[in-house]
Specification:
The protein has helices at residues 7-15, 20-34, 96-106, 126-134, 138-155, 168-179, 198-201, 221-234, 260-278, and strands spanning 53-63, 66-75, 84-88, 111-114, 161-166, 186-190, 208-213, 238-243. It is α/β, with parallel strands linked by helices.
Length: 279
């Protein structure tokens, strides 16, 4: 992944009050967490879902003149108005494993849209994943995510909308909430980059579910606890969970860091959280 995840992340970190040294330290830790990982399928495919779901590729946005294709999934045999989910991929990109997870989320009774922040690129190695992550432009990504929300509400007729992402996508799930604080109704963050500035977090109107690993040195427990404290001070409803023995990417649908027990519990909490706040 390299010592610098990219200009977009550096700008984001500086915007929330991090010094350059703190930014470098964070990016170095993230690089260490993903060293030697590969985008393989793992036991996430075994997570239970209520019903089967089917998906298709859809064009949901146009960013900087380029059409953006995502993956839209709905539960089989169900019609009528349903809540929607914006599903944000990990650093490998929108691959088959993310499509599988999107189907599982849809199977819980949602219109689930997996967005693409890499413009069609899918990483096959840590080097390429780092390259694609470095190329992400913050302004374009926010535009992409806002159009995903509009696609769900205007084109698919969904009612409430939630966001969810893992690692790279977990940070962008929080950014989606901050960009659409009066529109997103529930946000799930799997060990993504966190913001602990209380004034920024005060914008949030939706509840937050955060899922972290105690052995994650990229997003360490002290950061997750600081995030929880900042949310409390901002008056934002939240539920933060830190899993003993779990490292970074413990629930990623792609990769070799998957830890079944922690991932299955996090999945149950995710399903219950969305059901409570979106249905």
């Amino acid at each position: 992944m390299g010592t610098h995840l990219g200009i977009w992340m550096m700008v984001l970190l500086m915007a929330v009050g991090c010094s350059s040294e703190e930014s470098k330290d964070y990016l170095d830790r993230m690089s260490d967490e993903h060293r030697g990982d590969v985008p393989v399928a793992n036991a996430a495919s075994e997570l239970e879902q209520d019903t089967q779901a089917s998906g298709e590729s859809v064009t949901y946005a146009t960013v900087d003149g380029h059409e953006i294709t995502g993956y839209l999934s709905k539960p089989d045999g169900e019609s009528g108005s349903m809540p929607g989910l914006i599903v944000i991929h990990e650093w490998w990109g929108l691959n088959d494993n993310i499509r599988m997870m999107t189907d599982k989320l849809a199977g819980e009774g949602y219109v689930a849209l997996a967005v693409d922040l890499y413009n069609g690129k899918v990483a096959e190695s840590p080097d390429s994943a780092g390259k694609y992550a470095r190329a992400v432009d913050e302004k374009a990504a926010i535009d992409n995510l806002k159009q995903a929300y509009n696609y769900l509400t205007q084109k698919q007729g969904v009612t409430n909308v939630g966001s969810i992402g893992w690692c790279f996508g977990g940070g962008w799930s929080l950014q989606t909430a901050l960009a659409l604080p009066d529109k997103v109704d529930a946000t799930v963050i799997y060990y993504g980059h966190l913001i602990t500035d209380v004034d920024q977090l005060k914008k949030l109107k939706m509840p937050i579910l955060g899922l972290f690993g105690a052995e994650d040195s990229g997003i360490p427990p002290k950061q997750a606890k600081a995030f929880e404290s900042a949310l409390d001070k901002a008056g934002v409803a939240n539920s933060i969970h830190i899993y003993d023995g779990a490292g970074h990417a413990f629930a990623n649908p792609s990769g070799t860091r998957y830890q079944k027990e922690a991932a299955e519990d996090a999945w149950k909490k995710t399903v219950a959280f969305f059901a409570e706040n979106l249905k």
